[in-house]
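Nitroreductase: structure tokens wanted.
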Amino acid sequence: MVLEAIKKRQSVRSYREKEIPEEVLQQILEAGRLAPSASNQQGWEFIVVKEESLRKKLVPACKNQKFVGEAPVVIAGCATNLDHIMSNGEHSYPIDLAIALDHMSLEAASLGLGTCWIGAFYQDQVKEILGVPEDVRVVALMPVGYPKELGSKTGRKPLSEIVCYNKYRT
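Answer:
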């Protein structure tokens, strides 16, 4: 079942003018809430942008990606704990937010909705538009909606090219 959602998911950049029922949106958000995080910190907040005027303001802040304003909902994934460093020396928040947003993306796909990961945006502009405090970082934006059209699926490398066993391939 999960693998089917993974196979179905693709980046959607064209959305129908159809509202997402509240119970469907809550189900998508619940998938993010249940995501694992480093030390179970759950150092995130998700801003659900439904207001059309705000979604339109996000377009120039997202390098003029017009579909950001066309989706009925945009979810901003925000990191509230920027200080946690994992034992490997890396900050945990980019990974934590990626996992949570991917959980949402897969749940959306399983429900017939499309999403697109937006990492190309101006942090300061998005924070101003959405009223995000200085000590919080917007990690990604994710438009959500019913796809108007689906592009062709992008290819994936075969397992033989990306998997090695026991030691790194040389």
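The chain has one domain: 2-162. The mean pLDDT is 95.

Cheers.
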